Structures are given as structure tokens and as C-alpha cells.
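TICKET: design request
STATUS: open
ATTACHED STRUCTURE:
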């Protein structure tokens, strides 16, 4: 069992870290990400900039939540992956020759395009990992941390550090 416990942690950290990295790279260049979103033709022009900021911010928050195993983060990650799979499937079905937009402007797939199928396969592998995470949580009866508990823990440590300084 310890091996599977570690696998649970490593998958959480890997997927969480990947979502954090992906979200941050897009937040650093929201205009570029908006152009990538526009290439799919599914978001109205007036919503391009809000989506190009909110979506990556959600990725970062969910990724951080998954790192700390907070309540609800895996649900958000699952929802985002399902959304990405649907959009990539749409792009492949429509024959779009666009970048997937997965990792912002520095994404190597941006140069070659034709990156929709590999991105779809990558997301499907991550969905498989997410299924394992759900299964392991259920099997081991893992209790995720409530965000309020996480904040209380951090604030308590912060208060303790301040008191120790004085």
C-alpha cells in the first residue's frame, strides 16, 4: 500500500504542478492566449479577454488546491480536463490547424501546430490519472482538507511567527 499512497501523492503533485505552470504561462500573456482561444471560434469576441484571464487563474487555483489536497480541487481539475478534451475534440473534428493553447505562448506545439491530437492524448492520460485519484480516495477513505482549515493553519503559523519575533 505505501507504493500506491506515494503514487497518489506524486500524481496529485504532478497534475497540480502542471496546471499551475500552464495557468501561469497563460496569465503572463493573456492577449496571446485570447488569440489562441479566438482561433477555435467558440467564444464571443467580448468574452475573449475575461476567459483568457479567468480560465488560467482557475487552473492555478485548482493546481494549488490539488497540491495541498484541498476539498473540491480535484473536481475543478476534472471539469477543466473534460472541457479541454471537448474543445480539442471539436478542433480535431473541425480540422482546425491551430495550437492547442495548453501552455501559453512558449508552448513547443505552437510552432508546429498540428498539436491537437497529442494534447488530446495527454489530457486523456491525465483523466486516467484523475480516475485513479478518485478511486484511491474512495478506497483509502482519504479526507481532503477544507480550504478554511488550510487558511486557519497558515494564519496560525503566521501569528506564531509574529509572536516569536516579539
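STATUS: resolved
RESOLUTION: sequence designed for all positions
ATTACHED SEQUENCE:
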Amino acid at each position: 500500500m505505501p507504493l500506491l499512497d506515494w503514487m497518489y501523492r506524486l500524481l496529485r503533485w504532478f497534475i497540480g504542478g502542471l496546471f499551475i505552470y500552464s495557468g501561469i504561462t497563460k496569465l503572463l500573456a493573456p492577449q496571446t492566449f485570447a488569440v489562441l482561444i479566438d482561433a477555435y471560434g467558440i467564444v464571443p469576441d467580448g468574452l475573449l479577454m475575461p476567459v483568457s484571464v479567468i480560465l488560467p487563474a482557475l487552473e492555478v487555483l485548482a493546481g494549488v488546491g490539488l497540491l495541498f489536497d484541498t476539498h473540491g480541487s480535484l473536481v475543478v481539475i476534472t471539469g477543466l480536463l473534460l472541457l479541454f478534451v471537448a474543445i480539442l475534440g471539436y478542433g480535431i473534428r473541425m480540422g482546425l490547424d491551430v495550437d492547442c493553447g495548453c501552455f501559453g505562448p512558449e508552448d513547443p506545439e505552437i510552432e508546429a501546430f498540428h498539436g491537437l491530437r497529442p494534447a488530446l492524448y495527454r489530457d486523456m492520460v491525465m483523466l486516467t490519472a484523475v480516475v485513479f485519484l478518485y478511486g484511491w480516495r474512495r478506497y483509502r477513505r482519504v479526507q481532503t482538507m477544507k480550504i478554511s482549515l488550510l487558511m486557519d493553519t497558515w494564519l496560525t503559523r503566521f501569528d506564531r511567527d509574529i509572536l516569536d519575533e516579539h
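CLOSING REMARK: The mean pLDDT is 84. The first helix runs from residue 2 to 27.
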